[in-house]
Amino acid sequence: MKYVEAIENHLSIKAKKEMLPMQPGDVENTAADTESLEKWIGFKPNTSIKDGIGKFIHWYKKYYGIEEKNNKCE
């Protein structure tokens, strides 16, 4: 839901959500230990969901020539 809320906030719209029971293949929680990968490649991502979604929306609109009605995405 954090992803949907971030998209709603950056686009200033409310999504039409239809909450369904868990579907085959759905997982309630997931986790990963990425410490070995971070050490191997020398990089640890630190972009929040809110900022990452905003940057993606800004890029998408710019790439496809969609006018931005506000500056939330920057």
Describe the structure.
Helix 1 packs across helix 3 (49-63). 43% of the residues lie in helices and 0% in strands. It has a domain at 1-12 and 46-68. It has helices at residues 2-11, 35-41, 49-63.
What are the main properties of this structure?
single chain; 74 residues; mainly alpha; 43% helix; 0% strand
- Helix/strand class: mainly alpha
- Oligomer, anyone? single chain
Helix segment tally: 3
State mean pLDDT (0 to 100 scale): 91
| H and E string | HHH
Strand content: under 5%
Largest sheet: none
Instruction: Compute the CA-based radius of gyration.
Output: 16 Å
Report the span from N to C terminus.
Answer: 22 Å
Percent of residues in helices? 40-55%
**Strand runs, count:** 0
Shape: flat
Indicate the low-confidence ranges by residue numbers.
none
Please give the structural blueprint:
Blueprint: H1 2-11, H2 35-41, H3 49-63
Short account of what is shown:
This protein is mainly alpha-helical and 74 residues long. The chain is built from three helices and no strands. The mean pLDDT is 91.
